[in-house]
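Z., the sequence and structure:
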Amino acid sequence: MSNKGNKRSFTAGSREKLPKYLEKEEIEKILNRTKENNRIHYLILLAMWRTGGRCIDIVQMKKENVKPDEITFRNSKGGVDRIVPIESHVYDLLSYHMTHMRYNERLFPMSKSNIRKFLKNYVGDKKWVHPHTFRHSFAVYALKNGLNIRALQKILGHKSLETTAVYLDLIAEDVKSEYNKILW
């Protein structure tokens, strides 16, 4: 179940809107539509989904930054570099894509606005979805599947654990939603 952005956080006392995200099945539908139409678009969205990378991280990524088990996002938000693990399947796809590239060549020479534009073609009726939704979805999915919040903080490149903790509020909303399904 997606958070449509209307829910509020009650667990930490914050009254701010929670980030919108998609469940894994919804992400996979978008990825499948993308894969059928454009291999480059598919790789971009897959990289954002599987790494939690920001759009800027993906467009700035160079061949030299991709290793068999990690990607180094250079000069990310705040000018900080960060190393993010990747699974072998994603590395294999990126490696194939990079076959004829120079060492310091960008993998996806396009702008963030190009990504926003092409994504609109694949989201169906979920017009509120934008590239950063993939980052939020990654964070929620990772926590639901047991990733330690400190590890998630490192992967996302948050300076403060409080910034990462907002995703715990999203999971708390899911727990309440599931609890309400109980017929008493």
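Residues 24-111+131-179 form a domain with the hpI Integrase; Chain A fold (CATH 1.10.443.10). The two ends are 22 Å apart (CA to CA).

Let me know what you think.
H.
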